[in-house]
Amino acid sequence: KQWYQRRVRGCEENACQSKMQQHNNKGWFTVSCILVLASLLPRFLVGIHSYSGEGKPPMFGDFEAQRHWMEITLHTPISEWYHNTTKNDLLYWGLDYPVLTAYWSYAIGLVGDYVNPHMLELTKSRGYESLQCKAFMRGSVVFGDLLFYLPACWIFINTYYKPKGVSLDKRILGFVFLAVQPALLLVDHGHFQYNGVSLGLVVLAISFIFKERNLIGSVFFVLSICYKQMNLYYAPAFFFYLLGKSWKSKDFVGSVWRIFKIGFVVIATFLICFAPFLVSQEQILQVIHRMFPVARGLYEDKVANFWCSTSPLFRWKEFEVATLLKFSTILTLLSFLPSGLLLMVRPSEKSFLFGLLNCSFSFFLFSFHVHEKTILLPLLPASLMILDSSISVLWFTLISVFSMFPLLQKDGVGVPYFVSVVSLVWILYYLVKSKENFSKLYTIGIGFTVLGIFDIHALTVLRSPPARYPDLWLLLFAVFSFLHFVIIFCYSNYYQWKIGSSEKEISKPTSKPSESKKKK
Question: Is the pTM of this model over 0.85?
Answer without folding.
Answer: yes
